[in-house]
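Handout, section 4.2: multi-component inputs.
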Amino acid sequence: MDISTPALLLDLKKVRRNTKAMTARLASKGVNLRPHLKTAKSLEVARLAIEGNFGGITVSTLTEAEFFFAQGITDIVYAVCIAPSKLDRAADLTRRGAGLKIIIDSVDLAVAISGHGGQFRVLIEIDCGEHRTGLDPDHADLLEIARLITDSENAELSGVLTHAGQSYNCRSVQDIRQTAQIEHDAVLLAAARIKKAGYACPVVSIGSTPTVTFGDDFSGVTEARPGVFVFYDLFQAGMGVCSEKDIALSVLASVISNRPEHQQVLIDAGGLALSKDRSTGALDTDFGYGLVCDALTGLPESGLIVDSVHQEHGNIHISDVDTLAQFPVGRRVRILPNHACMTAAAYDGYYVVDGNDIVAEWPRCNGWK
Amino acid sequence: MDISTPALLLDLKKVRRNTKAMTARLASKGVNLRPHLKTAKSLEVARLAIEGNFGGITVSTLTEAEFFFAQGITDIVYAVCIAPSKLDRAADLTRRGAGLKIIIDSVDLAVAISGHGGQFRVLIEIDCGEHRTGLDPDHADLLEIARLITDSENAELSGVLTHAGQSYNCRSVQDIRQTAQIEHDAVLLAAARIKKAGYACPVVSIGSTPTVTFGDDFSGVTEARPGVFVFYDLFQAGMGVCSEKDIALSVLASVISNRPEHQQVLIDAGGLALSKDRSTGALDTDFGYGLVCDALTGLPESGLIVDSVHQEHGNIHISDVDTLAQFPVGRRVRILPNHACMTAAAYDGYYVVDGNDIVAEWPRCNGWK
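Output:
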């Protein structure tokens, strides 16, 4: 691979396998897969992830929504509570034909929407225990928001949405299953309250890769929004959600220094190229800033990790002299990331690889402009 | 400021003040300032930083080198040990007229350079105690590399370079002063060995914002390469290298959720917009993922911090009900960053502000392509 390092590699076969497996799993549960593209931010990955599904996607920024809509994907949930100043941008997408749904968790936003000149489809976000955004499912404001949106001539209540982000704190499959049930029950309770009060609630949306992978009960759920499953990463593998072999994303790096006297090898992928995400620090096996693999086979190099980073340097501690000698200046390695969403964000695109051949370059839509 | 959030703001007056102060300090020591543009990655910031100086800069990627050279800045040190596969790219810059200097720390690289078809100016990197890249100043390979480069028809030995990155571990001004002396002594020892062996060593280059700010002894040093001083950040302020008022970089964010029942406010700047850098976690005052300031005055809001982040969410814990009420949905805040280099990297440019007016937009050159 004659490309400058650091570079972001995407294993096409693994992405296909991951998206097909998730599609099959959710189809077997009778739930629509609405993949969250915050991880990939790529049209080509979006197309693989919606293949065999109903075609809807999830995004984390309006920049992503505009990008995917411009390329022909119309059914989009913007799954971060919208700031009032972004209503103009959302309304513009709807005016141009996008089937955009926004999410809110406050009466203030419901009032702002009903007083706005644009048209909106609205999901109410429910907090199922992560305590990020969302309303507790028994919150009094839930029905007030449902009423305000339903009564607004320019808005339509699409339903409810939740995200069991607390599943990332689970340390066993059993924990994840329990969390999935909590996620399910919370959003169903909110939906039931809305329907009982006489308002429509056609969409009941859940999502997180761990809970969607291990949850049992999808009754009443209409769609699921996992994201990181398209690539997976060391954190998901450490949680048992995937295996290391499923990780489709890696950073190609070059050895730039080999220092036997300090038992270290330095590579040209550091805090920017790998991200400073340290999520595996909370798991049984701490992978530092990433797992070192052979550049050609993609297989781990005897458990070596990038143990510290500077902006453009990654440090690999190697105490064994013979092992150290296997990493001369110029050798290339692949680093598997802790957290695919954070690592990929430093790059404007992917080198798509099939085995060791680069078969395509796929751009990403980063930023917020 | 009618811009979408999150957005990266740069306070023009503070940048000017910071660059002028560093220029004056180094001029008073008789040392050339070669600002490290890895923080700013911006032509306009580069111009402010080299104003009143000799015009040379430092970069952390060949992408930066190409960017600045294309805009007319020719004297460039690429201050990361070069990978053999990047020699072609470096040689191309030199061929096109750039006064590019590359750095190496191994005999292997010296051999690769002397066998390459291009022309190179080479600095040998010295490890003054950070134990990142570089040769220990008394390392036997130092003179072998000096000989190989000096004897190569296509290469010129420009001198020695070191970086006291361990100054970031200092916890007092006295510690920083001692580290500055160690940095000075290490690189001077290496330069003396090279000269004594009969090779040229015109450049003696040091650099790190803390050591350059507090060092006493610059004898024999020809240039210094601080970088983060152009913007500063909470980590530098926490070390006593600057004050919070000197921090020129901030992230403009909007409140997207206000949850009295959970004593929290959520903003639309999360792990991507702020970075996952947690460097202040090692200091007396831990600022989490950033310090919350008023959007208009830029002044801190009673010590509130972003205590946790998700990809697009930042959480601010606020236990006091009255304080919480001051952050309704839609309010804007500015977040001062832990580490300017990491936070700025998520954006393709700066909104340059003078007071509360956006006076310019300056692009950044991110990535490695």
